[in-house]
Design brief:
89% of the residues lie in helices and 0% in strands. The protein contains three helices and no strands. Helix 2 runs antiparallel to helix 3.
Length: 87
């Protein structure tokens, strides 16, 4: 479970810290206990990043759906208007 501090992290902050965690793990030279703590921190940071990206994707999808809906509305209005003219 992520902490309140993690939830307050911006995407770039979490990403940058995650990059540092990965670098430290890849470099080695840490004890098993330190490595496990780094791994756990990396997992938490990855969750924070994933939530930011999912939120951005949802906003993008909503904006695209709204734009698509606006593009369809004029066509539907003119279609129903021509139906009344012919009836």
């Amino acid at each position: 479970m992520t902490s309140k501090v993690d939830e307050a992290l911006g995407y770039e902050q979490a990403r940058d810290e995650l990059i540092e965690v990965v670098r430290r793990l890849e470099t080695g030279g840490t004890t098993l206990e330190e490595s496990l703590a780094l791994w756990e921190r990396g997992e938490e940071l990855a969750k924070v990043c994933r939530r930011w990206l999912e939120g951005a994707r949802a906003r993008l999808d909503a904006a695209l759906a709204e734009e698509s809906g606006e593009a369809e509305d004029p066509g539907e209005d003119s279609g129903s208007g021509s139906g009344r003219d012919s009836g």
